[in-house]
Write a structure and sequence with these properties.
heterodimer, A: 107 residues, mainly beta, 7-stranded mixed beta sheet, 4-stranded antiparallel beta sheet, 48% strand, B: 119 residues, 0% helix, 50% strand
Chain lengths: 107, 119
Amino acid sequence: EIVLTQSPGTLSLSPGERATLSCRASQSVTGRYLAWYQQKPGQAPRLLIYGASGRATGIPDRFSGSGSGTDFTLTISRLEPEDFAVYYCHQYGTSPLTFGPGTEVDI
Amino acid sequence: EVQLLESGGGLVQPGESLRLSCAASGFTFNNFAISWVRQAPGQGLEWVSAITGSGHSTNYVDSVRGRFTISRDNSKNTYLQMNTLRAEDTAVYYCVRHNGQNGGCLDFWGQGTLVTVSS
């Protein structure tokens, strides 16, 4: 099983600042099959990034993903008030599919 | 518009069974795999089970293999039959579409249905 570790656990920032979230895998993620999701309280997760760097439909370009192998990054260039949420990374290349524990971005 | 609507959650006692349903609309159902992903209260996400678009292949996380069964029909429904439920199965269960027939990322999520296992 591929274990995903996210850091930091909590990121305290202000609107307009840059957020850098890290996801590290216990072994190489097949085919860069790494996604990022945003989840707000009481809501289902929403796909932001797939294939490590592809932006999902309707996602603003302030969200970007990068990385390969075992190290991946989600960057939010300038935080908007609606971006304060929990972010999960997810690998879907190897069964069982696994998720990281999440990074909370708060004010 | 892609929509996934879960139903069937509720309160059950340990050892009992429950069947979750997911009604899909807005896309060609047989072209996409479907997964169930759960989230225990205040916790992170855990993938539970997946079924390919054809319905011919299924997969499970070890903790539910042998107790849960995923299936789908031609009426755009996906099911999760959950037997011998345990307290640790308590969670919101999301029905989620993959972006391909045999897998891929999880691109559309339902709103979830809560399963509570407690005596």
